[in-house]
Each structure stands twice: as structure tokens, then as C-alpha cells.
Design a protein that fits this description.
Helix content is about 35%, strand content about 20%. By secondary structure, it is an alpha/beta fold. A five-stranded parallel β-sheet has the order 2-1-9-7-8, sandwiched between helices. Strand 1, helix 1 (about 15-25) and strand 2 (about 30) form a beta-alpha-beta unit. Helix 1 (about 15-25) packs parallel to helix 5 (about 140-160) and helix 4 (about 110-120) crosses helix 5.
Length: about 210
């Protein structure tokens, strides 16, 4: 994966999901947070490795993250409004590659392909992920987690020489590995432990 670090401001919703994803996937994380580590739902826990700003005034707290990033990914349901729209405008003004992803428009699988294609084409290494807070768009934390997990596992499965493909080639025992793509919309729930409901490696007899 091109991304080597994920940053955000630590607010609830999309930004908190970005940090939790980085931790779960073993990707470095960071970013800038308001003085006192204050976020919309209280104080950001210390295990998130964000630096405190000396001061913050409204959207100014998001600006250092834009400057720090190679690209900005905005995730929301519907059109960008309020703070998210202002961040989008600022990122474009600073000539940062920017992808605004409307989860109401695309399925999870389609979103994962769009994210991967954009990251690879723009060669983004430090990614600023932002979007609405949980109080503004309930479930956006969960939606962001599921969307980016799908992007990660899709990349791992289809990237030539990716970790899961190497594991498949080295797996002992008879048979060969094949890739099976399901026809689901990306919104289904898999009953197996497969890393993605849309693409799984399965062993078939020789």
C-alpha cells in the first residue's frame, strides 16, 4: 500500500475511525489536535499519537493537517457541508490531491476501488482522512471503518505480490488457489472469517 501514515484531528466520526484503522492495520498515525487534546466528545485519549497545537480557532486546527498531508480523503454521506466543505476548499486551494467520497452514492466495494485507485495514482504517502462528526452523521464512524477496511483488503488481495497472494502461493497441501469474486453489492455481511465479503481466496482440487 502506498500510504505509510494516516493523520487526522481526532474528532469523533470519520477522524476517529481513521486513527483506529491505522492502529488496527499497523500503519503509523498522527496529526494535530486542539490545545488540551480537546475534541467534540471530550478529551482525546493519550494512546492517539497526535500533537497539541499551541492555539486553535475554529477550522484553523485542521490546517496543519492539510499542510502535513500528501493527500486529503473526505468521507461523508451526501454532499459536503459545514466544516468538511471548508476543509475541502482549503485542500484544493493548497493544491493537495483531494478525494471527496459520498457513501450514499457508492457501495462499499465501489468505494474501496475508488480509494485504492486514487491513492495509487496520486502516490499518497501521508493521508489526511476527515469528514463529519458522529453527532452530525450517526454511524459515520462505523461506515468509515468498513469502507477503509474493504479498501485495504481489496488492495491486499489484488495487488501483485501482495501479502495474501504470497501466503496463498506458499500455503502447503494439495490443490491450487483461485480468486472468487462475489456478485454482492458490498453491503452484505459475510458469515465467514474471510477478510472481505467481495474477494476471497479459496482452494480447489488439482
Amino acid at each position: 500500500m502506498v500510504v505509510r501514515k494516516i493523520i487526522s484531528g481526532g474528532q469523533s466520526g470519520v477522524e476517529r475511525a481513521a486513527l483506529d484503522l491505522a492502529i488496527q492495520l499497523g500503519i503509523a498515525h498522527g496529526g494535530w489536535v486542539a490545545p488540551g487534546r480537546l475534541v467534540d466528545d471530550g478529551r482525546l485519549p493519550e494512546h492517539y499519537r497526535l500533537k497539541e497545537m499551541a492555539f486553535a480557532d475554529g477550522l484553523v486546527s485542521a490546517y496543519p493537517n492539510i499542510e502535513m498531508a500528501d493527500g486529503v480523503l473526505l468521507i461523508a454521506r451526501g454532499s459536503l457541508t459545514g466544516a468538511a466543505a471548508a476543509v475541502h476548499a482549503r485542500a484544493r486551494a493548497r493544491q493537495r490531491p483531494c478525494l471527496a467520497l459520498d457513501l450514499d452514492r457508492y457501495t462499499r466495494f465501489q468505494s474501496s476501488l475508488l480509494i485504492n485507485s486514487w491513492l495509487k495514482s496520486r502516490r499518497v504517502e501521508i493521508l489526511f482522512i476527515t469528514g463529519p462528526r458522529e453527532k452530525d452523521q450517526p454511524t459515520i464512524y462505523r461506515d468509515t471503518m468498513e469502507c477503509f477496511r474493504a479498501a485495504w483488503w481489496t488492495l491486499m488481495m489484488v495487488e501483485p505480490g501482495g501479502p495474501l497472494q504470497r501466503q496463498a502461493r506458499l500455503a502447503p497441501g494439495p490443490g491450487r488457489w483461485t480468486r472468487r469474486w462475489s456478485a454482492c453489492s458490498g453491503n452484505c455481511r459475510s458469515r465467514t472469517r474471510s477478510p472481505s465479503p467481495t474477494c476471497v481466496l479459496m482452494r480447489s482440487p488439482v
